[in-house]
């Protein structure tokens, strides 16, 4: 072998070594640190029940959007905490089992640093209107239990309807990735200076919320407007919470209304299936502040409900709950509450989802047209109770017996209350979960209280780790080839000269 050929071989070998060394250095120098996971707990103390959520996120990424996810949900046995008004000391202990479940999910050495929050919604709002001292005692009881858990207690309080709407909106937009815009979308949006978010529709047992970014800025009703700066963008958000318009309180309102014109104690109710019967104490019906204005003396103490199963009648019946007669603003939803024109897509969750999912009306591939939704509810309501009961024997009777009313109420609320029509119906997306996380206010609440949503966009390295390593490899290969080529060109080893090769 000639000396030039030897040198060439050595050089080739050295270049390969250099490339390998460069890659090795790039990989080891920039290897991401082992994942350090953090946890947070939020208890959603709703009017019908309490859920405990455990969230996790990588510690080093806590200011990025979309990194927090739900790892556990525990449904507390028994009623919501507002249901303990007659045994307030039992409200706290009812949470113990779910807290123990959270202890199993979160590594013990991290218990102490894990924040735990409890937010109570409309059930407790109503209880504090009805009996403030009972509401305070319930909150002290749950605080005592939460303080005795091994976590870092951060508060147990009643959140306002505005907060409930706003945090629900933050949750779904965080999970849908609407706050983070990358690539062409970011460019497009910065050119048009818009950023699309999705509205949020939440239906609980005692209240319902509507929250979205309206098209035009209007200061007609400042109490319905919220301002946020999130990841470097400004958002002006409309929100309203209707207390007493959750589906359980809406049913109470409807029954109290029906009672006004009754001559005897039996009620033929079009919102329940034919053959269904239920007895209600009239005193219970008027305990809630939602019906107190309809309270009067009745010549009977119990109400006997007989199902009739008639959607059209039920619809006319529930429609009466939405008073559209006077509106002091340019536009209203109902009861004289300001509502700007609807804008964009909406995510509809909690009972909106439970009910529509039961009725098979949530499919994203072929969203049901409004008239198909109505006919589905109509034919469901028309099925006799014995048939419904045997077809869905696995579903709790309390839920099952009310899907006809709830479906009808949801249509009334969306169509009569908020003015959704067949033209924008497909903009409503009924969703239970986004990824592994439930849609609801709890995630947004935790993100806010732990300062995990920065006002300005966090500085992020321009390249991801993978692209960085890839680029290093590419540059090294190009460099090595250029060197080799240059050497070959200038030194023209004999082996490459014409006649020798
Ligand atoms: N699979 C399910 C689960 C719940 N529900 C009903 O859905 C309603 C509301 O549920 P939820 O969103 O959990 O309400 P809460 O959070 O308890 O009430 P609020 O937000 O008003 O405090 C309740 O009437 C409950 O009976 C249902 O019909 N089917
Ligand atoms: Ca709720």
From TrEMBL:
Reactions mediated catalytically: UDP + H2O = UMP + phosphate + H(+); a ribonucleoside 5'-diphosphate + H2O = a ribonucleoside 5'-phosphate + phosphate + H(+); CTP + 2 H2O = CMP + 2 phosphate + 2 H(+); ITP + 2 H2O = IMP + 2 phosphate + 2 H(+)
Function, as annotated: Catalyzes the hydrolysis of both di- and triphosphate nucleotides (NDPs and NTPs) and hydrolyze NTPs to nucleotide monophosphates (NMPs) in two distinct successive phosphate-releasing steps, with NDPs as intermediates and participates in the regulation of extracellular levels of nucleotides. By hydrolyzing proinflammatory ATP and platelet-activating ADP to AMP, it blocks platelet aggregation and supports blood flow.
Binding locations of ATP: 205-209
Enzyme class: hydrolase
Subunit structure: Homodimer; disulfide-linked.
Membrane spanning residue stretches: 468-490
Pfam families per UniProt: GDA1_CD39 (PF01150)
CDD domains, per database record: ASKHA_NBD_NTPDase1
Database matches in PANTHER family: ADENOSINE/GUANOSINE DIPHOSPHATASE, ECTONUCLEOSIDE TRIPHOSPHATE DIPHOSPHOHYDROLASE 1
Protein localization: Membrane, Caveola; Membrane
Record's protein name: Ectonucleoside triphosphate diphosphohydrolase 1
Membrane topology of this protein: Multi-pass membrane protein
Cofactor dependency: Mg(2+); Ca(2+)
